[in-house]
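== Item description ==
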Amino acid sequence: MTLLPPGQIETRRFPIVGERRPSDDLANAPEIWKLSVGGEVERPLEIHLESFLARPQQKIRFDIHCVTSWTRFNTEFTGVPLREILDDAGITPAARFVSFAAYSDRDHHTSLPLEVAMENSWLVHSVDGERLESGHGGPVRVVTPGRYFYKSVKWIKRVDVLAEDRLGWWEENSSYHNVADPATGTQRFTSGSLRPEQLLRFLSADSYDKYRGRVLLGLDLREWTPSNKNLSRLYLKNCDMTGIDLAGADLRGCNLSLSDLRGANLAGADLSGSDVEGANFAGADLNDVNLSDSALSATRFVDGGESARVKGLQISGSWGLVEAQEQYLQSQGVA
């Protein structure tokens, strides 16, 4: 029997998460794809798309676990085990880690211990018998079973074998856990991002300008009463916001991913263009809330017998809803 890891919800869909398109060079001409392999190797490699696809192809099935809390069971990928590529390159005795970098405007990258990468990582071009769409990392991406999906870099461009670890983009910028084992339920993030005295300054701030666009992680905001309604572009990830009153607030472009907003009052708030992946709104007042053009993968509107009030909720242009949550919203007249 396949079990959900702690905090995950099942979907048969394959939501697009993270960056939605590669850098312009690859987006405009996918056929230019090539992979460079270097670092602690004896024979640096450069592999072009045609030669990669000419290699003997294999299939692997595994369960995808996204850090935003959705799980897709029994997903089939087609490609080449990374071990074969690294064997061709020849690993030096100094090698301890593997770093993966993407064709990405923000130079998206992550790393794994060498033994994990050699045992589990694959370079793949197809999912469930169909070529990977660009949004899912086509023409070629990495997949690593047994790790949250941010360890599986889209649009793979470069593989560097390293003597010392190199923290990835998410690990550096959002404190995502460097091990990322879903089975534990405790390795989404490393820790909170503010010391107690810094949290007190945030809670009592008259203006939030200095905090906009900065990730504030793992905060207890249950007693927070904002000094004003201009909360746009606050990145309050994995925060406890249960029962908070944010009615009518300007929350445009916010990141509330994985935050607990059960029972919160958000009536009339503008959350358009926000990232609320994995956020829990069960029991919250979402009447007349604008969630247009927002990321909703694994967002919970109903959970454990509690459901959000959603009269007048707007979700046009949003994406990523899992089936059960979409069904609930549709039953409440939210298209």
Summary: The chain has a mean pLDDT of 96. The domain at 192-335 is CATH 2.160.20.80 (Pectate Lyase C-like). DSSP finds seven helices and 15 strands in the chain. The longest helix spans residues 323-331.
